[in-house]
Amino acid sequence: MDKVRQIQEELIWNAGYRMDESLRMIKICMSGLSEKDIWKKPNKSSNSIGNLILHLCGNITQYGIASLRNEQDDRKRDEEFSVSSGYTKEELVQKLSDTIAEAKRTFFDTPLEELLRKREVQGFNFSGIGNIIHVTEHLSYHTGQIALWTKILNNKSLGFYDGVDLNAKNR
């Protein structure tokens, strides 16, 4: 296998791993929340966990699926933040899981030329690689918000890394 293909596969594998880690953490958060909790907002200028998950699905679809597949962008971003009910915890987790799985398939199926091609998404100009990086970091960013709001609501550790020695030194 040539080096370029190895780099492409390594990038895509690592992006997928990070996305799966964020999904794992969100699932842990959701398991400790009530149906009512997922639609609570800390204040008027913040979003509920339900809104954040809908927002993540919209963003991942826009940047990581439609853009890389050269499909029409049908995102209605403002609606992601205006919803205040209508989805259960289970439905939200399934929607996010399905969206992440579809994005990961798209990343894997995207030819190198499309990964390198610049395209405009949401007024920004990125390559396909830039879109993959954006999707990954954006998901991670909002995962942190979901984790913080969950900790505030429940006042307890989420145990994301229980059983892992986080003090282990590099080898």
Notes on the protein architecture:
- This is DUF1572 domain-containing protein.
- InterPro entries: DinB/YfiT-like, DUF1572.
- With 171 residues, this protein is mainly alpha-helical.
- The protein has a domain at 48-157: Four Helix Bundle (Hemerythrin (Met), subunit A).
- 64% of the residues lie in helices and 5% in strands.
- It contains six helices and two strands.
- The protein has helices at 3-31, 49-69, 77-82, 89-109, 112-116, 128-154; strands at 118-121, 124-127.
- The protein has a two-stranded antiparallel ribbon with strand order 1-2.
- Strand 1 and strand 2 (124-127) form a beta hairpin.
- The radius of gyration is 17 Å and the shape is globular.
- It starts with a helix and ends in a 17-residue tail after the last helix.
- The mean pLDDT is 96.
Characteristics of this structure?
171 residues, mainly alpha, Four Helix Bundle (Hemerythrin (Met), subunit A), two-stranded antiparallel ribbon, 6 helices, 2 strands, globular
Describe the strand arrangement of the main beta sheet, using strand numbers. 1-2
Unreliable residue stretches: none
Oligomer: single chain
Radius of gyration: 17 Å
Tell me the major beta sheet: 2 strands, antiparallel
Structural class: mainly alpha
Overall pLDDT level: 96
What portion of residues belong to β-strands? under 5%
Could you tell me how far the N terminus lies from the C terminus, measured between alpha carbons in angstroms? 27 Å
SSE sequence, one letter per element: HHHHHEEH
- E-strand count: 2
CATH superfamily of the domain at 48-157: dinb family like domain
CATH architecture of the domain at 48-157: Up-down Bundle
Overall body shape = globular
CATH class of the domain at 48-157: Mainly Alpha
Helicity, as a percent range: 55-70%
How many DSSP helices? 6
CATH topology of the domain at 48-157: Four Helix Bundle (Hemerythrin (Met), subunit A)
